[in-house]
Amino acid sequence: MRYVNNNISSLFVESLNELNISERQKSVLQASLTLFSEQGFENTSTTEIAQLAGVAVGTVYQQFNNKEGLLQAVLEPVITEVIPKVASEFANGIQAPQGPNFTEFLQNIMQDRMQFVIDNLPQIRILVRETMVNQKIRNQMKMELAKLPFAKLKELFVYYQEQGQLVDWEFSRILRAIIGAMCSYLVPLIFEPNKTIDVAKASQDAAETLIKGLKP
Protein backbone atom coordinates (compact mmCIF):
# COMPACT_ATOMS: atom_id res chain seq x y z
CA MET A 1 0.00 0.00 0.00
CA ARG A 2 1.44 3.36 -1.04
CA TYR A 3 0.25 6.04 1.36
CA VAL A 4 -1.22 8.93 -0.62
CA ASN A 5 -1.19 12.13 1.40
CA ASN A 6 -4.57 13.46 0.24
CA ASN A 7 -5.03 16.95 1.61
CA ILE A 8 -8.68 18.00 1.48
CA SER A 9 -7.85 21.71 1.48
CA SER A 10 -5.47 21.35 -1.49
CA LEU A 11 -7.92 19.20 -3.44
CA PHE A 12 -10.66 21.72 -2.61
CA VAL A 13 -8.62 24.51 -4.22
CA GLU A 14 -8.08 22.31 -7.28
CA SER A 15 -11.81 21.66 -7.54
CA LEU A 16 -12.59 25.39 -7.32
CA ASN A 17 -10.24 26.05 -10.22
CA GLU A 18 -12.34 23.68 -12.31
CA LEU A 19 -15.57 25.58 -11.59
CA ASN A 20 -16.88 28.46 -13.66
CA ILE A 21 -16.84 31.02 -10.83
CA SER A 22 -15.05 34.31 -10.26
CA GLU A 23 -11.76 34.70 -8.42
CA ARG A 24 -13.61 36.52 -5.63
CA GLN A 25 -15.96 33.59 -5.20
CA LYS A 26 -13.02 31.19 -5.08
CA SER A 27 -11.33 33.34 -2.44
CA VAL A 28 -14.49 33.45 -0.32
CA LEU A 29 -15.02 29.68 -0.53
CA GLN A 30 -11.39 28.94 0.25
CA ALA A 31 -11.43 31.31 3.22
CA SER A 32 -14.68 29.76 4.43
CA LEU A 33 -13.30 26.22 4.41
CA THR A 34 -10.17 27.40 6.24
CA LEU A 35 -12.07 29.25 8.98
CA PHE A 36 -14.86 26.68 9.34
CA SER A 37 -12.13 24.05 9.78
CA GLU A 38 -10.08 26.06 12.27
CA GLN A 39 -12.86 27.68 14.31
CA GLY A 40 -16.01 25.73 13.55
CA PHE A 41 -19.04 26.91 11.59
CA GLU A 42 -20.84 28.55 14.51
CA ASN A 43 -17.74 30.43 15.69
CA THR A 44 -16.94 31.92 12.29
CA SER A 45 -18.43 35.24 11.19
CA THR A 46 -18.93 36.50 7.66
CA THR A 47 -16.72 39.46 8.61
CA GLU A 48 -13.82 37.11 9.33
CA ILE A 49 -14.43 35.27 6.06
CA ALA A 50 -14.46 38.54 4.12
CA GLN A 51 -11.24 39.71 5.79
CA LEU A 52 -9.38 36.49 5.02
CA ALA A 53 -10.72 36.46 1.44
CA GLY A 54 -9.76 40.10 0.93
CA VAL A 55 -13.27 41.20 -0.06
CA ALA A 56 -16.02 43.39 1.39
CA VAL A 57 -18.59 41.77 3.67
CA GLY A 58 -21.29 42.83 1.23
CA THR A 59 -19.61 40.74 -1.45
CA VAL A 60 -20.03 37.62 0.67
CA TYR A 61 -23.76 38.24 1.14
CA GLN A 62 -24.21 39.23 -2.49
CA GLN A 63 -22.77 35.94 -3.72
CA PHE A 64 -24.06 33.49 -1.11
CA ASN A 65 -27.04 35.17 0.66
CA ASN A 66 -26.14 33.90 4.16
CA LYS A 67 -23.64 31.79 6.08
CA GLU A 68 -25.70 28.61 5.63
CA GLY A 69 -25.67 29.12 1.87
CA LEU A 70 -21.95 29.61 2.06
CA LEU A 71 -21.52 26.35 3.96
CA GLN A 72 -23.56 24.53 1.32
CA ALA A 73 -21.38 26.06 -1.40
CA VAL A 74 -18.26 24.86 0.42
CA LEU A 75 -19.45 21.32 1.06
CA GLU A 76 -20.85 20.63 -2.40
CA PRO A 77 -17.47 20.50 -4.20
CA VAL A 78 -16.00 18.61 -1.24
CA ILE A 79 -18.64 15.91 -1.68
CA THR A 80 -18.89 15.81 -5.47
CA GLU A 81 -15.25 16.50 -6.42
CA VAL A 82 -12.86 16.03 -3.50
CA ILE A 83 -14.18 12.77 -2.05
CA PRO A 84 -14.16 10.99 -5.46
CA LYS A 85 -10.57 12.18 -6.06
CA VAL A 86 -9.49 10.92 -2.64
CA ALA A 87 -11.14 7.54 -3.25
CA SER A 88 -9.64 7.24 -6.72
CA GLU A 89 -6.11 8.04 -5.53
CA PHE A 90 -6.51 5.56 -2.67
CA ALA A 91 -7.66 2.85 -5.08
CA ASN A 92 -4.74 3.57 -7.41
CA GLY A 93 -2.33 3.33 -4.49
CA ILE A 94 -3.38 -0.23 -3.59
CA GLN A 95 -0.65 -2.58 -4.73
CA ALA A 96 -0.95 -6.21 -5.72
CA PRO A 97 -0.08 -8.52 -2.80
CA GLN A 98 3.33 -10.15 -2.71
CA GLY A 99 2.03 -13.14 -0.79
CA PRO A 100 -0.98 -14.49 1.08
CA ASN A 101 -0.68 -12.23 4.17
CA PHE A 102 -4.08 -10.68 4.65
CA THR A 103 -3.32 -9.47 8.18
CA GLU A 104 -0.50 -7.24 6.95
CA PHE A 105 -2.57 -6.00 4.02
CA LEU A 106 -5.50 -5.22 6.32
CA GLN A 107 -3.32 -3.27 8.75
CA ASN A 108 -1.79 -1.27 5.90
CA ILE A 109 -5.07 -0.13 4.41
CA MET A 110 -6.52 0.64 7.84
CA GLN A 111 -3.46 2.67 8.83
CA ASP A 112 -3.60 4.54 5.51
CA ARG A 113 -7.24 5.56 5.88
CA MET A 114 -6.96 6.32 9.60
CA GLN A 115 -3.98 8.57 8.89
CA PHE A 116 -5.98 10.31 6.17
CA VAL A 117 -8.79 11.08 8.61
CA ILE A 118 -6.37 12.43 11.21
CA ASP A 119 -4.54 14.56 8.63
CA ASN A 120 -7.87 16.09 7.58
CA LEU A 121 -9.73 16.01 10.88
CA PRO A 122 -10.93 19.67 10.92
CA GLN A 123 -12.53 19.37 7.49
CA ILE A 124 -13.99 15.94 8.25
CA ARG A 125 -15.57 17.27 11.45
CA ILE A 126 -17.51 19.82 9.39
CA LEU A 127 -18.61 17.20 6.88
CA VAL A 128 -19.71 14.71 9.55
CA ARG A 129 -21.61 17.37 11.49
CA GLU A 130 -23.52 18.57 8.45
CA THR A 131 -24.21 15.04 7.25
CA MET A 132 -25.85 14.34 10.60
CA VAL A 133 -28.14 17.40 10.58
CA ASN A 134 -28.63 18.28 6.91
CA GLN A 135 -30.81 15.96 4.81
CA LYS A 136 -29.62 17.46 1.51
CA ILE A 137 -25.97 16.92 2.41
CA ARG A 138 -26.79 13.41 3.63
CA ASN A 139 -28.44 12.54 0.31
CA GLN A 140 -25.49 13.93 -1.65
CA MET A 141 -23.10 11.86 0.45
CA LYS A 142 -25.10 8.67 -0.16
CA MET A 143 -25.06 9.27 -3.91
CA GLU A 144 -21.31 9.88 -4.06
CA LEU A 145 -20.42 6.98 -1.75
CA ALA A 146 -22.40 4.64 -4.01
CA LYS A 147 -20.10 5.63 -6.90
CA LEU A 148 -16.77 5.06 -5.15
CA PRO A 149 -14.28 2.83 -7.03
CA PHE A 150 -14.08 -0.36 -4.97
CA ALA A 151 -13.37 -2.76 -7.85
CA LYS A 152 -9.64 -3.11 -7.17
CA LEU A 153 -10.15 -3.63 -3.46
CA LYS A 154 -12.83 -6.22 -4.22
CA GLU A 155 -10.40 -8.11 -6.49
CA LEU A 156 -7.83 -8.25 -3.70
CA PHE A 157 -10.39 -9.56 -1.23
CA VAL A 158 -11.24 -12.33 -3.71
CA TYR A 159 -7.51 -13.11 -4.01
CA TYR A 160 -7.15 -13.52 -0.24
CA GLN A 161 -10.31 -15.62 -0.12
CA GLU A 162 -8.85 -17.93 -2.76
CA GLN A 163 -5.65 -18.13 -0.70
CA GLY A 164 -7.64 -19.27 2.32
CA GLN A 165 -6.75 -16.12 4.29
CA LEU A 166 -10.16 -14.44 4.30
CA VAL A 167 -13.64 -15.68 5.12
CA ASP A 168 -15.96 -16.24 2.16
CA TRP A 169 -18.29 -13.32 2.85
CA GLU A 170 -19.72 -10.80 0.42
CA PHE A 171 -17.49 -7.79 -0.25
CA SER A 172 -19.93 -5.34 1.32
CA ARG A 173 -20.04 -7.32 4.57
CA ILE A 174 -16.25 -7.40 4.87
CA LEU A 175 -16.02 -3.70 4.05
CA ARG A 176 -18.60 -2.81 6.72
CA ALA A 177 -16.61 -4.79 9.29
CA ILE A 178 -13.39 -2.92 8.41
CA ILE A 179 -15.04 0.50 8.41
CA GLY A 180 -16.75 -0.26 11.71
CA ALA A 181 -13.44 -1.24 13.32
CA MET A 182 -11.77 1.98 12.13
CA CYS A 183 -14.69 4.11 13.27
CA SER A 184 -14.37 2.76 16.81
CA TYR A 185 -11.02 4.60 16.96
CA LEU A 186 -11.84 7.60 14.75
CA VAL A 187 -15.28 8.69 15.95
CA PRO A 188 -13.98 9.78 19.39
CA LEU A 189 -11.41 11.96 17.60
CA ILE A 190 -14.14 13.67 15.60
CA PHE A 191 -16.22 14.55 18.65
CA GLU A 192 -13.41 15.06 21.19
CA PRO A 193 -11.00 17.67 19.73
CA ASN A 194 -8.28 17.09 22.34
CA LYS A 195 -8.16 13.32 21.95
CA THR A 196 -5.24 11.72 20.07
CA ILE A 197 -4.20 8.21 19.06
CA ASP A 198 -1.09 6.39 17.87
CA VAL A 199 -2.20 5.50 14.34
CA ALA A 200 0.29 2.67 13.85
CA LYS A 201 -0.69 1.00 17.13
CA ALA A 202 -4.41 1.64 16.66
CA SER A 203 -4.41 0.13 13.17
CA GLN A 204 -2.41 -2.87 14.39
CA ASP A 205 -4.77 -3.44 17.33
CA ALA A 206 -7.83 -3.04 15.11
CA ALA A 207 -6.46 -5.41 12.47
CA GLU A 208 -5.51 -8.07 15.04
CA THR A 209 -8.98 -7.92 16.59
CA LEU A 210 -10.78 -7.84 13.24
CA ILE A 211 -8.79 -10.69 11.69
CA LYS A 212 -10.14 -13.09 14.32
CA GLY A 213 -13.58 -12.70 12.78
CA LEU A 214 -12.39 -12.59 9.17
CA LYS A 215 -10.40 -15.80 9.14
CA PRO A 216 -12.11 -18.77 7.44
Quick recap of the structure?
The protein is built from eleven helices and no strands. It has 216 residues and is an all-alpha fold.
Describe this structure in words.
This protein is mainly alpha-helical and 216 residues long. The protein has helices at 8-17, 23-39, 46-53, 57-64, 67-93, 102-119, 121-133, 135-145, 151-162, 171-191, 199-214. Helix 2 (23-39) crosses helix 5 and helix 6 (102-119) packs across helix 11 (199-214).
Q: Describe the biggest sheet?
A: none
Q: What is the average of the pLDDT values?
A: 88
Spatial gap, N to C terminus? 24 Å
Uncertain segments: none
**H/E element order:** HHHHHHHHHHH
How many helices?
A: 11
Shape: elongated
Instruction: Indicate the proportion of strand residues.
Output: under 5%
Helix content: over 70%
How large is the radius of gyration?
A: 19 Å
Structural class: mainly alpha
Number of separate strands: 0
